[in-house]
């Protein structure tokens, strides 16, 4: 553990203007507040914040960040308050400590909800000042280094899983690769102990049997570059066990078939030397096609810059080589922190693109599971590059589609997307993008996100935005149904109801506003009698318990699958007499009045519905028996084409000579349209039987 004077000296070495007295006071404060508290290792608890502060000095961060690291657990684990921190160390340190403290455990929540709530608070605090993230990453790294002292294996695995899923990817996102690699390695040891032990043992065996092969390859690379007049540093290493294990899992390979276990780094003085060195290596050694990546001309979102290539050595062995300048190497190791020099005053607006996306996801996510899903999608790094027609570059996960691209450019553009051109050709929106694709988004003024997009989008931002838009539309349409029911309810009251009574009803029902009242009626959260009593207290005293709805409610203008669902059991179409079943917190389920399911008895409120004048468009289901001979299926399809009907689904359900039985879903305008099609089917010699089901 760092002693008090050692910590202060570290800070003074890179920041001679640091307030020595304030740093000393913060050190003493954390020692006093944590007092006799112990860690699982048996060490004094204050050793942890001191070591975290030491990690911050390695990054040469400003004194406010160092003090935050020293004090980050005092509010959570001692009697100290944020007000105490502000009084003793100023508002900036108090704000940073509060940001880290917001990750404190929420014991009353379920495990996934607690993790999501911690992540939500963390991301919001991080958006205000990214130093919160730097302290938290150092805090998690030190906890991982001491994780083996925790006796409970399940707790160790839980912490390791959280580190692997959230903190290691976040470290990568800000370019802190050294933190990321160590976190992954320590988490891997806990999550896959057998695999970790096996790979570590095999690496040790290779190390003992290779006869200094890594050093020999590094020397050959350096000599080849020196012969070309390039002064460089070269060194090699084996890849981390977790990196090897992930490659084995992804490619389904045994350890013996992983060919590029060794990686080499070449450091140059300039960018020009990087490309010159690459040319020398590619002419001296055979390189592996498809394994070259240029992160200097197109850096990663986190600022990472380097050239990557893979070479064949001695015809059979592969070696990955990374070429970069010395400045790039320093930045690549610690990313954002490498830019955060004390001389810049420690200020940062935090408005990098990926962070804005994360905050938008926090706002859009509906529950804990959604938040965790979307955030994990947003922070993982396996990326491709795509361009707008004007040349703007966007990095997206592999498998991203044109819709993901549109949302990456801007949320409003994603919401208005109706089509896309990829490399100048009209392509389906679900088409996966490739590296270097030029994507032009076609938008429509009245377009809106489609629920079906969730079946193919892969980015957290796109999924969160689509779900938020769909939820908003669903709420609006349920509220519209509620407004129509409200009008029908008020007609049964003994007096005319005005805006004043409506406002009072909202207050009596403890609702937010009139829109909330309409939504609650539409979602069956309130019964008719509850609404009547709220509007005119005592109005239901002489009213029969089963008060009848006096007129049907129109569903014209509402969207199937959003404001209401058409029942799968009877597939009603415009022209059918319909009723709606309302259950709390669910959309209205629309049935034909003669549906057999209704005869079985259902636990739901019934609402008399109508399609509204000139409503059109629904899916009818047919049961058709064709004669088993060539051409009958084509004849049936011809009937549909001549009657302007579109087949949505076709399934052969029974093959019994001389007949074939099909069940099919047909997009039709209304009941009359469906009836004409049935008549036409029955009239053709190809059809033995045709019925609606």
TrEMBL record:
Q: Give the CC-aspect GO terms.
A: plasma membrane
Q: EC number(s) per UniProt?
A: 2.7.6.5
Domain ACT span(s) in chain numbering: 621-693
**One GO molecular-function annotation for this sequence?**
GTP diphosphokinase activity
**InterPro entries recorded:** ACT-like_dom_sf, ACT_dom, Beta-grasp_dom_sf, HD/PDEase_dom, HD_domain, NT_sf, RelA/Spo_fam, RelA/SpoT_AH_RIS
Which reaction is recorded as catalysed by this protein?
GTP + ATP = guanosine 3'-diphosphate 5'-triphosphate + AMP
- Give every HD domain span: 45-144
Q: Which GO terms describe its biological process?
A: guanosine tetraphosphate metabolic process; nucleobase-containing small molecule interconversion; response to starvation
Q: Which Pfam families match?
A: ACT_4 (PF13291), HD_4 (PF13328), RelA_AH_RIS (PF19296), RelA_SpoT (PF04607), TGS (PF02824)
Domain spans labelled TGS: 382-443
Q: Which domain of life does this protein belong to?
A: Bacteria
For this protein, the record's PANTHER family field holds:
BIFUNCTIONAL (P)PPGPP SYNTHASE_HYDROLASE SPOT, GUANOSINE-3',5'-BIS DIPHOSPHATE 3'-PYROPHOSPHOHYDROLASE
Q: What function does this protein fulfil?
A: In eubacteria ppGpp (guanosine 3'-diphosphate 5'-diphosphate) is a mediator of the stringent response that coordinates a variety of cellular activities in response to changes in nutritional abundance.
Q: Which family does it belong to?
A: Belongs to the relA/spoT family.
- In its UniProt entry, what is this protein called? GTP pyrophosphokinase rsh
Q: What is the lineage of its organism?
A: Bacteria, Pseudomonadati, Pseudomonadota, Alphaproteobacteria, Sphingomonadales
């Amino acid at each position: 553990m760092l002693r008090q004077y050692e910590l202060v000296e570290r800070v003074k070495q890179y920041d001679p203007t640091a307030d020595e007295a304030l740093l000393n006071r913060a050190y003493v404060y954390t020692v006093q507040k944590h007092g006799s508290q112990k860690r699982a290792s048996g060490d004094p608890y204050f050793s942890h914040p001191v070591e975290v502060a030491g990690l911050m000095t390695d990054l040469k961060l400003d004194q406010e960040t160092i003090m935050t690291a020293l004090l980050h657990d005092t509010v959570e684990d001692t009697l100290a308050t944020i007000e105490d921190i502000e009084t003793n160390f100023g508002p900036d340190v108090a704000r940073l400590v509060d940001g880290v403290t917001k990750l404190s455990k929420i014991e009353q929540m379920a495990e996934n909800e607690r993790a999501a709530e911690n992540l939500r608070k963390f991301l919001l605090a991080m958006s205000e000042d990214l130093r919160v993230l730097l302290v938290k990453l150092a805090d998690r790294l030190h906890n991982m280094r001491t994780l083996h002292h925790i006796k409970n294996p399940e707790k160790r695995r839980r912490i390791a899983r959280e580190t692997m899923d959230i903190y290691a990817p976040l470290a990568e996102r800000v370019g802190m690769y050294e933190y990321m690699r160590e976190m992954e390695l320590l988490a891997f040891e806990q999550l896959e102990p057998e695999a970790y032990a096996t790979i570590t043992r095999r690496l040790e065996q290779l190390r003992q049997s290779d006869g200094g092969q890594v050093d020999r390859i590094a020397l050959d690379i350096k000599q080849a570059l020196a012969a070309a007049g390039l002064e460089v540093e070269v060194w090699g290493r084996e890849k981390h066990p977790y990196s090897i294990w992930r490659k084995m899992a992804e490619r389904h390979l045994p350890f013996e078939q992983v060919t590029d276990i060794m990686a080499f780094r070449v450091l140059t003085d300039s960018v020009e030397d990087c490309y010159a060195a690459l040319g020398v290596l590619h002419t001296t050694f055979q390189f592996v096609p498809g394994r070259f990546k240029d992160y200097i001309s197109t850096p990663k979102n986190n600022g990472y810059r380097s050239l990557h290539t893979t070479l064949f050595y001695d015809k059979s062995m592969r070696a990955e080589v990374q070429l970069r300048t010395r400045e790039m190497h320093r930045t690549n190791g610690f990313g954002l922190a490498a830019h955060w020099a004390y001389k810049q005053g420690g200020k940062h607006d935090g408005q990098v693109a990926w962070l804005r996306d994360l905050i938008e996801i926090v706002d859009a996510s509906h529950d804990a599971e959604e938040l965790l899903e979307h955030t994990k999608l947003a922070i993982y790094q396996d990326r491709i590059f795509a361009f707008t027609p004007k040349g703007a570059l966007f990095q997206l996960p592999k498998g991203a589609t044109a819709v993901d691209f549109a949302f990456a450019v801007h949320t409003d553009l994603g919401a208005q997307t109706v089509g896309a051109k990829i490399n100048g050709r009209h392509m389906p929106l679900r088409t996966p993008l490739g590296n270097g694709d030029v994507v032009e988004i076609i938008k429509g003024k009245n377009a809106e996100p489609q629920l079906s997009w969730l079946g193919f989008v892969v980015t957290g931002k796109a999924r969160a935005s689509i779900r938020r838009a769909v939820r908003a539309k669903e709420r609006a349409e349920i509220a519209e149904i509620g407004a129509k029911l409200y009008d029908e309810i008020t007609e049964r009251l003994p007096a005319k109801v005005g805006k004043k009574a409506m406002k009072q009803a909202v207050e009596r029902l403890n609702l937010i506003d009139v829109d909330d009242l309409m939504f609650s009626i539409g979602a069956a959260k309130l019964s008719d009698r509850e609404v009547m009593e709220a509007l005119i207290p005592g109005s239901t005293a002489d009213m029969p318990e089963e008060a009848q709805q006096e007129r049907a409610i129109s569903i014209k203008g509402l969207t199937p699958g959003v404001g209401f669902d058409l029942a799968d059991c009877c597939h009603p179409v415009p022209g059918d007499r319909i009723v709606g079943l309302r259950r709390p917190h669910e959309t209205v389920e629309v049935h034909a009045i003669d549906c057999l399911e209704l005869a079985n008895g259902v636990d739901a409120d019934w609402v008399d519905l109508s399609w509204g004048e000139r409503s059109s468009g629904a899916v009818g289901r047919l049961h058709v028996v064709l004669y088993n001979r060539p051409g009958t299926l084509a004849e049936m399809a011809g009937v549909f084409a001549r009657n302007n009907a579109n087949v949505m689904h076709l399934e052969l359900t029974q093959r019994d000579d001389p007949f074939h039985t099909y069940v099919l879903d047909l997009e039709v305008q209304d009941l009359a349209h469906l009836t004409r099609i049935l008549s036409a089917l029955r009239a053709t010699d190809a059809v033995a039987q045709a019925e609606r089901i």
